[in-house]
C-alpha cells in the first residue's frame, strides 16, 4: 500500500515509518526537520521510502505537497496524520498566540492534508485517514490548554466525518493514545507508558481493521476514563505528580 505519514521525523510517526517500510509498503514521510528525515532515510536505505519537508500548518504548503505527489501519480491509500506540538501555553501566563499556533498545527494541520487528499480518495473510491488523538481531551491537561483543545476539536470533527464517508469507502479513524514514551510525553517511564514502536504496532492494526475510534493502550486509557469519576481537584493533583 501507499501510505503518507505526517510527523515522521520522531516519536510514533518515525517508528510507524520503520515498520511500514519493513513490511514493504511505499511510504512518504512528512515533517519540518530535514536532518531528522535524512537520518531516517539513511537508516532505512529503501527506495520505497521518500520524505518531504512540509509545515502542515500552512494550507498552501500542505496543498502543494499533496499536489506534487499526485502529479507523480503517487496517491496514498492511507494518510496517518500525527504531526503535532505540545508546548505549555498556560505557564507563566496564558499565551494566546501560542494557543493559536497549537490549534493551527494539531487541528488545521490535519485538515489541510485531509482537504487536499479527500477529492482523490473520492475519485479512487477508497482511502483511510488516521488521526492521532489524545486522552487529554477528556480531562484537559496540567501542561497546556491548546493541546487538549486541539485534540478535542480533532476528535469531534473526525467522529462527524466518519459516518458521512463510510458508505463511500473512505474511513476516518482516530486512535486515542494514553501516554507513550516519546519526547512529547514529559512524564515518568512506567509500565503504563508503551514505546513508540508499540504505539506504531497498534496503528498497523487500525490500518488492517479500520474503526472510527480506538484506544491504546487499553490499561492507561481505561484508567483515564475511569478517572472521570474523580473530582477535578484530585485529578489535577495526581497528574501534576506524574509530571517530572
Ligand atoms: N507521546 C504521547 O504520549 C502521545 C499521547 C497522545 C497522543 N499523541 C499524539 O501522537 C502523535 C505523535 O506524537 P509523538 O509523541 O510521536 O511526538 P513527537 O515525537 O514530538 O512527534 C511529533 C511529530 O510532529 C511533527 N510536526 C510538528 N509540527 C509539525 C508541523 N507544523 N508540520 C509538520 N510536522 C510537524 C514533528 O516533526 P518536526 O518537528 O520535524 O516538524 C514530529 O515528527 C501526535 O499527534 C500526538 O499528539 C502522543
Main attributes of the structure:
single chain, 244 residues, alpha/beta, Rossmann fold, 9 helices, 50% helix, globular, binds NADP nicotinamide-adenine-dinucleotide phosphate, Short-chain dehydrogenase
Question: Topology, please?
Answer:
Blueprint: E1 2-6, H1 11-22, E2 26-31, H2 34-44, E3 49-53, H3 59-71, E4 78-81, H4 96-124, E5 127-134, H5 136-139, H6 146-166, E6 170-177, H7 196-208, E7 213-216, H8 218-226, H9 232-242
Parallel strand pairs: 1-2, 1-4, 2-3, 4-5, 5-6, 6-7
Helix pairs in contact: 1-7, 3-4, 4-6
This protein binds NADP nicotinamide-adenine-dinucleotide phosphate.
Written description of the protein model:
The chain is of the alpha/beta class. Strand 2, helix 2 and strand 3 form a beta-alpha-beta unit. It has one domain: NAD(P)-binding Rossmann-like Domain (Rossmann fold, 3-Layer(aba) Sandwich). It binds NADP nicotinamide-adenine-dinucleotide phosphate. Belongs to the short-chain dehydrogenases/reductases (SDR) family. This is Short-chain dehydrogenase.
Amino acid at each position: 500500500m501507499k501510505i503518507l505519514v505526517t510527523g515522521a521525523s520522531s516519536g510514533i510517526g518515525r517508528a510507524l515509518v520503520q515498520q511500514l517500510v519493513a513490511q514493504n509498503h511505499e511510504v512518504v514521510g512528512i515533517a519540518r526537520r530535514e536532518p531528522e528525515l535524512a537520518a531516517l532515510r539513511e537508516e532505512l536505505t529503501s527506495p520505497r521510502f521518500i520524505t518531504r519537508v512540509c509545515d502542515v500548518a500552512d494550507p498552501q504548503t500542505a496543498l502543494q505537497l499533496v499536489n506534487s505527489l499526485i502529479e507523480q501519480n503517487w496517491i496514498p491509500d492511507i494518510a496517518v496524520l500525527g504531526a503535532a506540538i505540545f508546548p505549555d501555553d498556560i505557564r507563566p501566563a496564558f499565551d494566546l498566540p501560542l494557543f493559536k499556533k497549537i490549534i493551527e498545527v494539531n487541528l488545521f494541520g490535519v485538515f489541510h492534508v485531509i482537504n487536499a487528499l479527500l477529492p482523490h480518495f473520492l475519485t479512487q473510491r477508497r482511502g483511510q485517514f488516521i488521526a492521532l488523538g489524545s486522552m487529554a481531551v477528556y480531562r484537559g491537561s496540567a501542561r497546556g490548554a491548546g493541546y487538549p483543545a486541539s485534540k478535542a476539536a480533532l476528535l469531534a470533527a473526525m467522529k462527524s466525518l466518519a459516518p458521512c464517508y463510510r458508505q463511500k469507502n473512505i474511513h476516518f479513524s482516530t486512535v486515542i493514545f494514553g501516554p507513550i514514551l516519546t519526547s512529547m510525553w514529559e512524564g515518568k517511564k512506567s509500565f503504563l507508558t508503551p514505546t513508540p514502536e508499540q504505539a506504531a504496532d497498534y496503528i498497523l492494526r487500525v490500518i488492517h481493521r479500520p474503526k472510527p475510534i480506538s484506544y491504546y493502550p487499553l490499561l492507561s486509557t481505561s484508567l483515564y476514563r475511569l478517572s472521570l469519576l474523580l473530582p477535578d481537584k484530585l485529578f489535577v493533583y495526581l497528574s501534576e505528580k506524574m509530571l517530572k
